[in-house]
């Protein structure tokens, strides 16, 4: 039986925080940090001022790179350190072990969850109570006594009330976005059952607004999955790498643009020869020495095959195929919110267990030439965690290493932590 790896009780947000409910992670070397990222290091919280890939400690640490990092607060130790030591491993490192049980009813890891297992169109969000706010135009009241030049605070602190109302606005804005995501998820899940929509996706005419749908998502519905296999086989017989590359460029440009609309939380983005990795590329594994590895995929022999990417790799990436490790200079990498590892979970399969998908949604992966779904997987080899691929019902993952293709057991498959949050 597979073993789901997830955290069942995220910590509460820090006082006054409007984040999604997790403390900033500890700073790590060899990680792509986008502008605005907040991390903890050496007793201080730091904000990234320039997107970059962190270097080795101590030279690459925030304390030695004040042109890249700004201290924004101090603390005696990292809050909830034990929590984040586990949570950060959602992307990078060996996840903690848990008993093989399904998530409890209503489990959502701190995110808004719309009604599940129902056709109801109602949407729900918890409503906090805030004091009503008087006019926000005056925060301080001056003592009118001619014998005093003091400034005193009103018994009803209007400034704090205004700040709370601003927090409430941000809170309800976030909940409104989640409501829109929930509605769009239901809408696009229905659209993705139409083969014409899948064909439009392959032509670049359909850009999905949520994850877990479309050609590259394995469908739990057998009929829908068979439809995707056939559409891919037919498309592959008439098209090739250049067609895939053209659509990949368009898709990467679309998802890289800023937008207030709903977008997938995780996407694959194209990296062409001599280009840098995107700032939101996610560390999926690591070499023996700790150097991060990222998930990669590319067109090869009529299929979209998965492998690994890294700053240190020849040409930038490699995939495993037909017993060989194939190096590539043009490929896609798996990207998403680097500070929110709890959005995904690793499903662990031990020796002798096959990759059966029941009741959970894998993240988007690839397809064999015959249309069979390839899932994003990783496995341990030579004291490293190597990203690769896995077929449904296989008892191993395939990874590229040392010029060859290796079968690794046990292995893990990356999945969405919440079916309504993708």
TrEMBL record:
Protein name (database record): Chitin-binding type-3 domain-containing protein
Q: Tell me the InterPro entries matching this sequence.
A: DM9_repeat
Q: Where is the composition biased (Low complexity)?
A: 87-98
> What residues form the membrane-spanning segments?
none
Region: Disordered, residue numbers = 1-21, 87-115, 139-160
* Bias type Polar residues, positions: 106-115, 139-154
A Pfam match: DM9
Annotated organism of origin: Kwoniella newhampshirensis
């Amino acid at each position: 039986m597979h073993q789901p790896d997830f955290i069942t009780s995220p910590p509460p947000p820090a006082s006054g925080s409007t984040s999604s409910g997790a403390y900033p992670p500890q700073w790590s070397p060899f990680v792509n940090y986008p502008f605005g990222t907040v991390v903890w290091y050496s007793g201080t919280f730091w904000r990234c001022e320039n997107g970059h890939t962190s270097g080795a400690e101590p030279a690459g640490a925030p304390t030695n790179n004040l042109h890249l990092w700004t201290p924004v607060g101090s603390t005696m130790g990292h809050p909830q350190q034990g929590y984040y030591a586990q949570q950060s491993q959602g992307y990078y490192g060996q996840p903690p072990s848990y008993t093989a049980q399904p998530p409890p009813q209503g489990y959502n890891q701190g995110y808004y969850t719309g009604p599940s297992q129902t056709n109801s169109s109602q949407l729900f969000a918890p409503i906090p109570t805030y004091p009503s706010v008087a006019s926000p135009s005056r925060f301080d009241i001056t003592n009118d006594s001619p014998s005093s030049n003091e400034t005193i605070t009103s018994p009803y602190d209007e400034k704090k009330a205004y700040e709370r109302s601003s927090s409430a606005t941000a809170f309800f804005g976030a909940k409104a976005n989640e409501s829109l995501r929930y509605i769009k998820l239901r809408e696009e899940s229905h659209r993705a059952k139409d083969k014409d929509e899948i064909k439009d996706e392959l032509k670049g005419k359909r850009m999905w607004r949520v994850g877990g749908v479309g050609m590259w998502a394995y469908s739990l519905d057998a009929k829908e999955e068979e439809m995707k296999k056939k559409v891919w086989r037919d498309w592959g017989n008439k098209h090739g790498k250049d067609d895939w590359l053209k659509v990949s460029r368009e898709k990467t440009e679309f998802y890289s643009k800023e937008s207030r609309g709903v977008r997938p939380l995780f996407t694959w983005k194209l990296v062409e020869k001599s280009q840098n990795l995107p700032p939101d590329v996610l560390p999926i594994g690591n070499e023996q020495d700790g150097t991060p590895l990222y998930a990669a995929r590319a067109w090869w022999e009529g299929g979209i095959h998965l492998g690994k990417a890294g700053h240190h790799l020849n040409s930038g990436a490699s995939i495993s195929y037909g017993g060989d490790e194939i190096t590539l200079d043009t490929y896609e990498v798996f990207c998403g919110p680097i500070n929110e590892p709890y959005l995904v979970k690793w499903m662990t399969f031990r020796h002798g267990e096959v990759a059966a998908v029941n009741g959970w949604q894998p993240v988007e992966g690839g397809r064999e030439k015959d249309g069979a779904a390839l899932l994003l997987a990783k496995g341990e080899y030579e004291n490293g965690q190597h990203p690769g691929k896995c077929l449904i019902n296989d008892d191993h993952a395939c990874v590229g290493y040392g010029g060859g293709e290796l079968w690794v057991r046990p292995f893990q498959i990356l999945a969405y932590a919440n079916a309504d949050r993708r």
